[in-house]
User: What shape does this take?
Amino acid sequence: MIFNPEYECMNPEARKKLQLAHLKNLVENLYAKVPFYRSKMEEMDIKPRDIHRLEDIASLPFTTKDDMRLNYPHGLLACPKDRIVEVHMSSGTTGKPVVDEYTIEDINIWREAMARTMAGGGCTKDDIVQNCYGYGLFTGGPGAHYGALNIGAEVLPMSSGNTARQLMVMQDFGSTMLTCTPSYALYMAEEAVDAGIDLHALPISKGCFGAEPWSENMRKEIEARFGMKAYDIYGLTEIIGPGVSFECEAQEGLHINEDLFYPEIIDPATGKPLPPGEKGELVFTTLTKEGTPLLRYRTRDITYFMTEPCSCGRTTIRMHRLFGRTDDMLIIRGVNVFPSQIEHALVEIEGTEPQYLIVVDRGATHLDEVELQVEVKQEFFTDETRGLESLRNKIENVMKSKLQIGVKVKLVEPKTIERSIGKAKRVIDKRSI
Ligand code: DLL
Assistant: This one.
């Protein structure tokens, strides 16, 4: 089902006109209301009246995750604070999260974007959506919730975790659609086998999965285990949350809601725009947002545009499913983690060397597990084991509070972690996804 044919199947020329009108408005608005953007544009000697064509966007400044962090918490607000009705966040590079502040109009945009997204995955008003994305500051839970409500489906707002209860509800309430991270879907499937539940005998028949990298193999696995169709959905907190792009039944790339979020692909080294088919960094401009609209936000996600017409009838441009990122951000159980965050935390813990190795694996459970190997200062190693034990606990607690994920700490002797003469290798990612 196409949720909004008027916009999703729009004549591309008409869509360009709409995008240009929105872009002009946005640039004027940011210039007038957000000092950060005004000074960036002044530095580059650009005025809102210089924007005549869509291509002129290439002359406007980029926004980065660092810019967001430096302007934490309200520096990028483009409307009076009392118009904000909801806030979401995700983790940033050194502790400060990136923030999205929504007006009620922004929530309506999100409802629209997520209704299109879930309809792309086959959701109708007759569906019972078991929503196991996390609720809270994370955008996954609320985003899927809003989308399902907008379609008129029934939502089970489960949030993530408590798998035995998830499976009980899935059986007793006859959930027909699942929304969660792909790794959690696989974990649930495995728990179902252990609990003797035959997922194929249940009404669950489709799901929208995203928030972390996954592959065609994982898709096949989820589809086979549940007996369902599994769709890829993409988004990021900075732009709105989930709802930026989504797969339709053709499953040939993700349709971008480009009347709402203007996409570009750039060469990450030069910042120059790249043509369709060429892989580069994905950049988004929020065309209609009011609370924290962003100009040319560098996502660090790598993909390319697909412009061939899609058999579903939507005319929106598509992006290939992601190939990876240009930075070292890891996504662990849906939480964004930078190795530098771990380093910053370690420096403050007495007894440790700033030598560490992060080993990420997806064990038999299909859930991400992290082992953090940390070198201990020589004098601590000669200490009694009780001292080492309490150091290990301390590091685990600090990591839990700073990173919001549990890591297993393994203390190792000084000079055992391999040194490098070039870029230090801090991460071993064994997950085969
Ligand atoms: O993960 C929003 C979301 C929630 C998307 C639910 C889909 C479903 P953040 O926590 O800000 O927001 O993380 C955004 O996650 O820049 C990508 O690197 C990665 N990511 C999101 N969706 C996908 C996907 C949400 N389908 C970051 N495939 C993004 C691969 C994804 N990576």
Remarks:
- The first helix runs from residue 5 to 8.
- The chain has two domains: 1-325, 330-432.
- The chain has a mean pLDDT of 93.
